[in-house]
Structures are given as C-alpha cells and as structure tokens.
Specification:
mainly alpha; two-stranded antiparallel sheet; 2 strands; about 0% strand; binds protoporphyrin IX containing FE
C-alpha cells in the first residue's frame, strides 16, 4: 500500500481524488435534480418515484458510496488547503488572485455553505427531525411502500424562510460547479488550451442549469404553483 500512501501524499494525487469524487458528486446532483423535477408531475408520480428509490436494494450501497465521495472530496480539499498554507505560513500582504472570478474566490466558502446545507437537508427531507410535518414511508407488509415525499417537500418549502435557504444553497452549488467542473476537466487531462474554452462554457452551463432547475422547484412551491394534494 506504499503506492497509495505516496499517491495520497502528493498534491497531484490529492487533486485527482478531489476531481474524481467531484465528478461522482456532480453525477449525483444531476440525477437528483432530474428526479426532483418530477414534483411538477404531481403527488402520485413523485411519491411512486420516492417509493421506488426507498425500496431499492441498492439504496444503502449508494448512500455509503455518496458519503465516501463527500469525505474524499472534503478531505482532499482540506489537505490541499493545509498544504498550501504550510508552504506559505506568513500569508500574502495583499491577495492578487490569478483568476479574478467570483467563483474561484468563493470555492472554499461555498463548499462550507454546501456542507451546512447537506446536513440541514438530510435532517429536513430524509430523517425528518428538522421538519414539523414529516411523514416516513410506510410498509404495507407485503413488500410495498407508501411514501409521502411530495407532501414532505411541498409542506417543507411552503415556508418562505426555508425556500430562501434552499435557493441560497442552490446559488452556492451553481457557483461551486461553474468553477469545479472546469477545474476537474483540467485535472483529468483536458487542460489543453484547445478545450479550455469549451470546458469553461460547459462548467458555466452546468452550474447555471443545476441552479435554475433546483430553484424552479423551490420557487414554484413558495409561489403556490405546486401545492399540497
Ligand atoms: C431544491 C433542491 C433540492 C430539492 C427540492 C431536494 C429534494 C429532496 C427530497 C424530496 C429528498 C427525499 C427523497 C425521498 O424521500 O426519497 C432528498 C434527499 C436527499 N437530497 Fe435533496 N434536494 C435538493 C437539493 C439537494 C442537493 C443540492 C444535494 C446535495 C448536494 C442533495 C442531497 C440529498 C441527499 C444526499 C438526499 C438523501 C437521499 C437518500 O435518501 O439517501 N439534495 N432531496
């Protein structure tokens, strides 16, 4: 295992871990948004989709994989930050950012905002302890499940303060992806100037689409366009 130790103690090794785990999380975020957009199809369809997910034997392996990717992503990011701080313990007198974009400067802060959102979101939509009217799925005793994900989502986001917190988190997610997807393309070998503009545009478009899709759900609920059945 010395090769693994060597790999993880190098900056490029850490960057590759961050890029691959980021890619996996990016895939989850797209799939999750597409699943959630089914809220526009009504309670029956959305609850059937939730029951299919909750009753899936791959649910726990997927959850464990997701948790592993979150730890790998945050752990490699923290190790790289510590490494760069150690390399320059006194800090700069004034920061001259190489790339002046807002997203670059907010990657670390945005990552922490997303972490706080994920903890809150799980307590709100999965565990239910941060949700006053949360209902867990019920088993019919014959292998079938009845879920109330639609009711949980709509009654949760009808509160304008909660919907606003979701919207802020989706903007942070969009900014994180707008830089992160471009950055992972470079780490994974698409740093060639020929592809750079394409990678930048793709990252910006994906960030924008994820923010728009997720915010559309929160806005439609708080505006009363998606209602309780
Ligand atoms: C407006 C945006 C979002 C909405 C409307 C939303 C909605 C939901 C809902 C309804 C559930 C419960 C599903 C169920 O009962 O089967 C859920 C679970 C979850 N969400 Fe989200 N979500 C959003 C954004 C996000 C984001 C940005 C992330 C991560 C970056 C995320 C991560 C998760 C995770 C990890 C679960 C737990 C899945 C499981 O049961 O294992 N969500 N979300």
């Amino acid at each position: 295992m010395t090769w693994l130790k060597q790999f993880l103690s190098s900056s490029i090794g850490l960057k590759i871990v961050m890029a691959l785990s980021g890619l996996g999380l990016f895939g989850f975020v797209i799939a999750h948004m597409l699943g959630n957009l089914q809220v526009f199809l009504g309670a029956e369809k959305f609850n059937a989709y939730a029951a299919m997910m909750q009753g899936n034997p791959l649910l726990w392996p997927a959850r464990i994989g997701l948790l592993g990717m979150i730890f790998a992503h945050m752990g490699s990011a923290a190790a790289l930050v510590l490494r760069s701080n150690k390399a320059r313990p006194t800090g700069y007198k004034s920061h001259q950012w190489l790339s002046g974009s807002y997203a670059v400067r907010t990657m670390r802060f945005g990552g922490l905002v997303l972490l706080a959102f994920i903890v809150y979101h799980l307590l709100h939509m999965t565990v239910g302890t941060a949700h006053g009217e949360f209902r867990h799925c019920m088993s019919d005793g014959a292998g079938g499940l009845t879920c109330f994900a639609y009711q949980n989502l709509v009654s949760g986001l009808m509160n304008p303060a909660v919907a606003s917190a979701y919207i802020v988190a989706q903007v942070a997610l969009g900014l994180h992806l707008a830089h992160g997807v471009w950055s992972l393309c470079r780490t994974l070998g698409l740093g060639n100037p020929r592809y750079d503009l394409l990678a930048r545009r793709a990252a910006l478009s994906f960030g924008g689409l994820i923010t728009a899709g997720n915010c559309a759900i929160a806005i439609a609920i708080v505006a009363g366009l998606v209602k309780l059945p």
